[in-house]
Every structure is written in structure tokens, then in C-alpha cells.
Design brief:
Residues 146-156 have a biased composition (Polar residues). By secondary structure, the protein is of the alpha+beta class. It has twelve helices and 14 strands. It binds 2-acetamido-2-deoxy-beta-D-glucopyranose (2 copies).
């Protein structure tokens, strides 16, 4: 009797451990996803899968999906239903920003679901999800902070998310004994904190994460690092280096400094683009978001800018002044630069960057805009001052006799006073005078 009750207790204990042996992964604090695979599903390879998703109610929605990218993913999105419970919406990821409702996925919301304080919890079972329960599979997750959706329709429109996270679940380690809701006990009380698959790591063999059955796929960490480098490199190129090198031109009047720095920004821009393509490709958003499309357009359009710059330079050397090509070079560059800066902002939005990043980006962009504007105004004022000075020393009759509109006033004054002939086609001989900042840019 005594022995048998001990055995019964041991069995109960063992089965309670096994019972809760689902896997859990928390994407951030309180944004967690658990999956339990009943033995019967594990042995047959298909059948019911028990999910639990929790998120703070300060998020509009929280979604997870199979696979490593949205395109082709079977997704489950939870949001509040407006009457104290949650809506679980199965969706088919198309790679477009909003996955559409997928009624072919059979989902049933279970006990223990609801809104408790500032946490929403969805316990649900899916009977026909095509996923690998015998080894590690990749999953994606995303969430959006914002006001509660309060929508009981599984077709509610959700706003675009920021970043996606991906990880691996080894569902062979997520086996639960019974084919029933593992997230509540017999009394219907929530059992979430007994899950041995969660971060308490009891019996966990995967000590690196302390989280049995969760495989932090190298890909996602990698993608994140690449994304940071992409953002940094592209921002330095568009927000700092390009306007800086641009404003240096009229201030210093040294074309090779301008060209050298812009070449550097050009190279950085392409490195940033390459990294961006890698991230977009990994997350399946390539050419599907304004950021990736606009970025590609700007980068490709930028190919012509060094060509325009070189043509402008040749024109300047020949005619000692700006021509139509100069204005093409200047305005083409300004428009692309502005689009690049805007696109950086879109990128931060897409990546769901923290407000610190956004403020820093806007501040640096604002400062560079002011530096650029002041630099250009200073250069213009200097230019008009030197024109005035030159014109005050000149009779109108002399000006009208000038054969070259763009020739240098000082040179012509020397010519008129018999000190030498103008040589307007040999600009390189006049580095000091001709490439002076007042005239070149
Ligand atoms: C939410 O809905 C499920 C399924 O109908 C139910 O079992 C659960 O008790 C509900 N939760 C609340 C808080 O009403
Ligand atoms: C598991 O994670 C939760 C939330 O981060 C935390 O509150 C809890 O203390 C953790 N448990 C253990 C055993 O580390």
C-alpha cells in the first residue's frame, strides 16, 4: 500500500514532468512561444500540435510562423479580441507585408487563453500543420508594439511589423505524454512555469542556451549583425560622407578632395547595398518593401553620378565655368542624397529600430543638412562678393568686349591693361586662380 502509493506518486511526478516537456522560446521579455508535441503525433509524424503564445498587451499583435522567411510560411498571429480573450489567426505568408488569412489551417483556441492583466495568452491546438516534428525546424517570429487590436475576426488587418527573428525548435525534444492541452492542469489552472523546456532548464542538455529544444539558429544572429553593419555603413555614406564631400567642393575648391571622398562614399554605399541585399534575401523581403526597392533605385541611379562629375570637371577645365552638365551633376546628386537619407529612415522603421537609433539618425541628418546649407550659402556669398569686386573695377564697355562669357575677370583685366593674353583653355595652368572655390562649384 505504502509502496504502491509511492510508486503512484513517482509516476505522477514523472508524468507531470513529461507532461510539461514542451519547448519554449522567448523572443524578448514576456514574448514567448511554446510548442508541445503529443507522443501520438511524434510517433506518427503528424497530428495535433499544442501552442502557447504570450505577449504583453502593449503589443498590437504577436506572430510566429514556420520556416525562415515569410514567403511560404504558415503563420499564427494573436491579438486581443476585445472581450477579454484572444484571437488566433492562421495566415499564409506570401512575402508581402500582410499575410492573408489561411482558413485551411485548423486551429482551436483552448482553455487558459485570455487577457490577464497586461499579458495576452493564447493556448491553441493545430491539427494539420506541416512541420518536422522529428528534428530541428526553423521558425520566424515578429511582433508590433501599439494599441490592442480588439478584433475577434481572424482576418483583422494588421500593421506592418519591423524585424523578424528566427530560431530553431527541436520538436523531437518537445514531446508531451497526452494529446491534450499541456498549458493547464486538471483544474484548468495555468501551468506555464512548470515547463521543463522553458528557461528553467531542468534536465536541459542544451546548456549553451539553457533551453532544451531551442536552437538559436546562427543565421538569425548573423543576419542581425549584418543588418547593423549595413545600417552603419549606408548611413555613414549617405548621411555624413556625401553631404560633407559635397559641401567641401565650393568651400575648398579642390576637386580631387571632393572626388576622392565621394569615391569613398560610393564604395561604402555599395558595401552597404551588398550587406542589405544579404539581409533582405535572408528574411525574404527583397524588393518587397519600400526600403529595399527605393534603396536599389537610388544605388543604381548613383552609378551615373561619378560620370556626371567627371563630365562636369572636363567642362569646367575647358570653359572655366559651369555648364548644363554641372547643374545636372549638382541636382542629380542632391536628389539622390536626399532620397538616400529618407530611405535610411525607412530602413530604421522596417527594422523596428529603437527610438534611440531613430533620434540619433534624425539628429545627425539634421546637423548635416544645416552644415550643408550653411556651407553652400557661405560659398555663394563669397562668390557674389568677388563678382561685385571684380565688376566695380570694370567699365561696362570693357565687359561687352569680352569674347568668353565665363573667362576669369582678373585675367581679363590683365589682358585689357596689356599685362598678358588670357589663356582660358589651359585651366590647369591656373590651379591657384582658376580652381579657386569661388568659381569651380
Ligand atoms: C478564451 O477562449 C477559450 C476558447 O473558447 C476558452 O477556453 C477560454 O476560457 C477563454 N478565456 C477567457 C478568459 O474567457
Ligand atoms: C525564466 O524567464 C522568466 C522571464 O524572463 C524569468 O522571470 C524567470 O525567472 C526565469 N526562470 C528561470 C528559472 O531562470
Amino acid at each position: 500500500m505504502k509502496v504502491s502509493s509511492r510508486i503512484a506518486a513517482a509516476v505522477a511526478l514523472a508524468s507531470s514532468f513529461a507532461y510539461a516537456d514542451y519547448v519554449t522560446n522567448c523572443l524578448t521579455d514576456n514574448v514567448c512561444i511554446s510548442i508541445g508535441v503529443p507522443e501520438v503525433t511524434a510517433s506518427s509524424g503528424s497530428g495535433n500540435l499544442y501552442f502557447q503564445m504570450t505577449a504583453p498587451t502593449s503589443y498590437s499583435w504577436f506572430g510566429i510562423g514556420t520556416g525562415s522567411r515569410m514567403a511560404g510560411s504558415s503563420m499564427f498571429i494573436i491579438y486581443t479580441d476585445g472581450s477579454g480573450n484572444v484571437t488566433v489567426s492562421p495566415r499564409a505568408g506570401t512575402g508581402h507585408s500582410q499575410p492573408s488569412h489561411d482558413s485551411s489551417l485548423s486551429v482551436e483556441v483552448l482553455a487558459g487563453s485570455g487577457v490577464d492583466g497586461d499579458t495576452m495568452t493564447a493556448n491553441f491546438v493545430v491539427s494539420n500543420l506541416d512541420t518536422d516534428v522529428a528534428s530541428t525546424s526553423t521558425w520566424i517570429g515578429a511582433y508590433k508594439s501599439g494599441s490592442s487590436l480588439d478584433d475577434s475576426s481572424p482576418e483583422a488587418s494588421i500593421s506592418e511589423h519591423g524585424s523578424e527573428t528566427s530560431w530553431g525548435f527541436d520538436l523531437s525534444q518537445a514531446t508531451i505524454t497526452d494529446d491534450s492541452n499541456p498549458y493547464v492542469d486538471a483544474n484548468g489552472d495555468t501551468t506555464t512555469d512548470t515547463g521543463s523546456g522553458s528557461n528553467d532548464s531542468s534536465g536541459g542538455s542544451d546548456s549553451s542556451s539553457g533551453n532544451t529544444g531551442v536552437v538559436d539558429s546562427g543565421g538569425s544572429t548573423n543576419s542581425k549583425t549584418i543588418m547593423y553593419i549595413h545600417a552603419l555603413v549606408a548611413s555613414v555614406a549617405f548621411v555624413i560622407l556625401m553631404p560633407f564631400a559635397s559641401v567641401l567642393m565650393p568651400l575648398l575648391g579642390k576637386w580631387y578632395i571632393h572626388a576622392g571622398l565621394q569615391l569613398l562614399s560610393f564604395v561604402l554605399m555599395w558595401i552597404g547595398f551588398g550587406l542589405g541585399v544579404k539581409v533582405a534575401n535572408d528574411t525574404g523581403i527583397i524588393f518587397k518593401q519600400t526600403h529595399t526597392i527605393l534603396g536599389t533605385v537610388v544605388i543604381c541611379a548613383m552609378i551615373f553620378q561619378p560620370v556626371f562629375g567627371w563630365l562636369h570637371h572636363l567642362h569646367y577645365v575647358k570653359h572655366q565655368g559651369r555648364g548644363a552638365i554641372s547643374y545636372v551633376h549638382i541636382w542629380y546628386g542632391r536628389v539622390l542624397m536626399a532620397l538616400g537619407v529618407i530611405n535610411g529612415g525607412l530602413g530604421l522603421k522596417l527594422a523596428n529600430a529603437g527610438s534611440g537609433y531613430k533620434i540619433a539618425y534624425a539628429a545627425v541628418a539634421g546637423i548635416m543638412f544645416v552644415v550643408y546649407a550653411i556651407g553652400k550659402i557661405a560659398a555663394n556669398m563669397r562668390k557674389s562678393r568677388s563678382y561685385k569686386k571684380a565688376e566695380m573695377h570694370e567699365e561696362p564697355s570693357q565687359r561687352s568686349r569680352r569674347p568668353y562669357n565665363n573667362s576669369d575677370e582678373a585675367e581679363w583685366r590683365r589682358y585689357e591693361s596689356g599685362q598678358g593674353a588670357p589663356q582660358p583653355y589651359e585651366g590647369h595652368r591656373y590651379e591657384g586662380a582658376r580652381y579657386d572655390s569661388n568659381r569651380y562649384a
